[in-house]
Amino acid sequence: MDILNKVRDYREEEARLKWEGTFADYLELVKERPEVAQTAHSRMYQMIKNAGVSKKGNGKSYDFFSKEIFGLQEAIERLVEEYFHPAAKRLDVRKRILLLMGPVSGGKSTIVTMLKRGLEQFTKTDEGAVYAIKGCPMHEDPLHLIPNHLREDFYDEYGIRIEGSLSPLNTMRLEQEYGGRIEDVIVERIFFSEDKRAGIGTFSPSDPKSQDIADLTGSIDFSTIAEFGSESDPRAYRFDGELNKANRGMMEFQEMLKCDEKFLWHLLSLTQEGNFKAGRFALISADEVILAHTNEAEYRAFISNQKNEALHSRIIVMPIPYNLRVSEEERIYEKMIRESDMAHVHIAPHALRVAAIFTILTRLKESKKNGIDLVKKMRLYDGETVEGFNQGDVTEMKNEFHDEGMSGIDPRYVINRISSTIIQKDVPSVNALDVLRSLKDGLGAHPSITDEEKEKYLNYIAVARREYDEIAKKEVQKAFVYSYEESAKTLMDNYLDNVEAFCNKNKLTDPLTGEEMQPDEKLMRSIEEQIGISENAKKAFREEILIRISAYARKGKRFDYNSHDRLREAIQKKLFADLKDVVKITTSSKTPDEQQLKKINEVVARLIDEYGYNSISANELLRYVGSLLNR
Ligand SMILES: Nc1ncnc2c1ncn2[C@@H]1O[C@H](COP(=O)(O)OP(=O)(O)O)[C@@H](O)[C@H]1O
Ligand SMILES: [Mg+2]
């Protein structure tokens, strides 16, 4: 019954938020809380701002978007700061159509949907409350009731600028229902709802021959026309086009450039002048954010057509490229899987990461900088450290191409390939190799990949595969060591004790016998050799480590296993080298003996308990790594 309780709570909440009063009451409210009279653009910006802004890297992250949109921080920042913010301040960008332009499945619709759902919620809050003339199909702004000649006075008293004039319908109602007394006109609080067609409109292009402008601007109501006698009687008109319904809120124009031009011209006058023409009436004022989206090819075709020049100058284009960070791409897949009917399927660790590596590679462009290959660029973009490069290089690389992220593989392709793997495999468990194989198999059928690209993409799959091989080997080897971290730490402490003694020309004390002994040269070398430190370089390396330790100590920090990248690598390799034969033999034996079986079970258990595998994927991993080590 929990859900029914929630339904009831919801209904009560709605009832509680209802407000109705006269225009005179409304003016009181406006005086107290002027934000109720803000413009559509301003309300939208408030909504975004109120959700929170956090500092991230060199920029800002808008929490409103970052809950569902990943890896597009810069594009979102630009969208908010170059459009929503200035538009809220009534600057000129408000008079342009906002056009999100980007590659297919890059999140454009998601952004628009978030804005819609966001507004629906926001109009239920105090900060986002909206009021309208009751009974008006366009939920007209009550302040339109103030006659033009009094608007300066109104501004002086309230500090609010009124835009737009009272609609023909409400002009008539004012006379007939209220005898011209504006103070008596009933005002109500409204809540945006796409379903109920309040404050949110959507228009998508269909067959241009059959699509009617009435979808946008409403139409004559032939059932009442006889009653009112004339087509120009506003009561004989249905103000139920998308532009009417979106008044005070936002209007989404899907795939705008696929639309017939005649539809676009209406938008122009609406954005530019704040009004549009419907039926035989004087212009109708409306206040709404017009948001459209399109892909790059269509946009290019559009601007290359001379005829569109006037339109073009009234559109503000905001690029929405693909995400270019591997870890964010993984989050996109996780989200999409969570929202799909594959949510119950076991996806082995690293499967999504490997897919993301492939995808990001297809989106990146080769840098001309020295020493940077695509894989290094990918790592740097994802915030990893790559020897010899720093944040400045990343910024430079980002400025190298203006259209990076505008092409490549889209997230939906990856999700579709994963789902086709699931169907083929008939066990609900998918690993990284399954995913890579499926990504590869699908390339032939991908509608927009040229042969040349295919060649490149196959190569990226091979790169992703090599990355995976390394990850897989490491994972298994780690799982073979009982408590990997512990062993690594013990080995390192041991090494450091010896290094210290060596540098200070001291002796060590044997913990068992208490005897003094020389530093264990063999042990130190066996670790150093793992990372190619020569006999001649060993002294310098050891001293460097001691200096690092004392630098840490001075800052009150503990030098630990993760404090020195190269040392960590050396320790890890040493541990693995010692293990290699055991791992190799155990994982690849066709008829494991009792001892080996025990070890395998132990490792599988560890992979399941500590590394996120299930028994299928853990066994698959072991078999794969066995074959790798035997190559
Ligand atoms: N950067 C991103 N962050 C989060 N989800 C994304 C991102 N890019 C794409 N998606 C997901 O991919 C799918 C397709 O996105 P969509 O918004 O329909 O793209 P578009 O409208 O640009 O074609 C959606 O499930 C969306 O959530
Ligand atoms: Mg879309």
Features:
631 residues; alpha/beta; five-stranded parallel β-sheet; three-stranded antiparallel β-sheet; 27 helices; 53% helix; elongated; binds adenosine-5'-diphosphate; binds magnesium ion
Provide an overview of this structure.
The chain is an alpha/beta fold and 631 residues long. 53% of the residues lie in helices and 10% in strands. The protein has a five-stranded parallel sheet with strand order 7-10-13-4-14. A three-stranded antiparallel sheet has the order 1-6-5. A hairpin with a 2-residue loop joins strand 2 and strand 3 (59-62). The protein is elongated. The two termini are 60 Å apart. The model has no long low-confidence stretch (mean pLDDT 90). Bound molecules: adenosine-5'-diphosphate and magnesium ion.
Q: State the helix count.
A: 27
Strand order of the largest sheet: 7-10-13-4-14
Bound molecules: adenosine-5'-diphosphate, magnesium ion
Structural class: alpha/beta
Distance between the termini: 60 Å
Main sheet overview: 5 strands, parallel
Indicate the mean pLDDT: 90
Shape: elongated
Q: Unreliable runs, pLDDT <50, ≥5 residues?
A: none
Radius of gyration using CA atoms only: 33 Å
According to DSSP, the number of beta strands is 18
Share of residues in helices: 40-55%
* Beta-strand content bin: 5-15%
